[in-house]
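Example 3.2
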Amino acid sequence: MVPSSVEGIIEAAQERPQPPVASRRAREPVGSPKASTTRLSPVTAIHSQTAVDRGALVTWTTSPTCLLAGHDTMGWAWLDDLTTGTVVRVGSGPCRGTYQVVGHRWQPRKGGSLPSWMGHYDLVLQTCTGRSGTGFSTARRMTR
């Protein structure tokens, strides 16, 4: 059955994965010394703030890079804390593939236009970081 609404898409999405790191800090990624693998199944709801607000991990954009976004208060606070070297497997949607985390970024604002640096990465995972900003894990594609 193919969902016909954003609500249906969100209901069809898999459960949120458990955070691969034990703690969370706003600016500095924290994780175990050994990289791990994280599996994500975002819903494809391009630019759907409604889907994000309802707790989904959303494929926000696919060009120039794949941007997956989720609210920190809805279980996605760990997205910007993935350890460098972590393998990220995106199992659904237009960003489907295997990526490796290569770094992290932070900006002191929420919302607005996409930062120009995003085009240098194949995948960017985005979440808010408290009241003051937005955090990102950046990754490069390993395979499709």
